[in-house]
Amino acid sequence: MGESLFEGLVQGVWALLLAGPVLVASVAATVFVVRRRALAGGNGQPERSDQLFWDLFLGACVAVPALLIPALVSPWTGLFLSAAGVAAGVAAYRGTPRYLSRRATRQNSREQESAHLAAVARHDEVVARWRRYELDPACNIDYPALTDVRLPETSAFIKAMRTADQLRLHAHQGYPDAVTRLAASLADAERAAGIPAEQA
User: Fold this and answer.
1) pLDDT of residue 200
2) Which pLDDT does position 42 carry in this prediction?
3) pLDDT tens sequence across 157-188
4) For a FRET experiment, which of 2, 5, 60, 117 has its CA 20 to 30 Å from that of 44?
5) How far is the CA of 190 from the CAs of 6, 107, 112, 154, 179, in angstroms?
6) How far apart are CA 125 and CA 187, in angstroms?
7) Contact at 8 Å (CB) between 63 and 85?
8) Which distant-in-sequence residues (6+ apart) come within 8 Å of 159 by Cβ?
9) Helix/strand/coil (H, E, C) string of the chain?
10) DSSP label at residue 53
């Protein structure tokens, strides 16, 4: 009697160790996928219903055997696994929005960093182009309008350059737009100074 009880206990523990991770992972993954699709929305109702069916079907193909086989070996193992599956589903349901939010934040941060680096390179290029008119004596003589802040186009460029410089220091999200305006204002100033487009 005691030996069969011990043997049943050992079998239940082995079933729990083997099937538990599979059940928990399959339930959590299924709930995560379904919840993510629900939060993202869908294009059309038939497509969403079809996706929901296949998500649940595939999850059930893994979770149901992982629950039923140990339950046949030992009923208490089945109860324990049922509780673990429910806990995993609830945790995945509640954790999915937070996970997706953190992932979106990281993605947004990477995109902003990439846009900032591209804007820095373009900013340096625009400023180097303008300094040629300021520092090269030949350009300064040929195109004095590019350094004359009394002209509205040159004044607008200097203001745009000051704004871009300020935003660059703090990695502001408006910095890429400021650099775009800076490049456009330099092009306007060059046109106003009579510089051919191919030479600018």
Assistant:
1) 56
2) 58
3) 999 999 999 998 877 778 999 999 999 999 99
4) 60
5) 90, 38, 30, 9, 16
6) 13
7) yes
8) 185
9) CHHHHHHHHHHHHHHHHHHHHHHHHHHHHHHHHHHHHHHHCCCCHHHHHHHHHHHHHHHHHHHHHHHHHHHHHCHHHHHHHHHHHHHHHHHHHHHHHHHHHHHHHHHHHHHHHHHHHHHHHHHHHHHHHHHHHHHCHHHHHHCHHHHCCCCHHHHHHHHHHHHHHHHHHCCCCCHHHHHHHHHHHHHHHHHHCCCCCCCC
10) H
Q: Which amino acid is at 109?
A: S
User: Burial level of 66, CB count in 10 A (0-12/13-18/19+)?
Assistant: buried
CA distance 89 to 30: 8
Residue type, 167: L
Query: By the 8 A CB rule, do 24 and 88 touch?
Result: yes
100: nearest Cα among 36, 31, 168: 36
Token duo for residue 8: 């049943």
**Angle, CA 148 vertex, CA 147 and CA 151 arms, to 5°:** 130
Residue with tokens 């996706």: 51
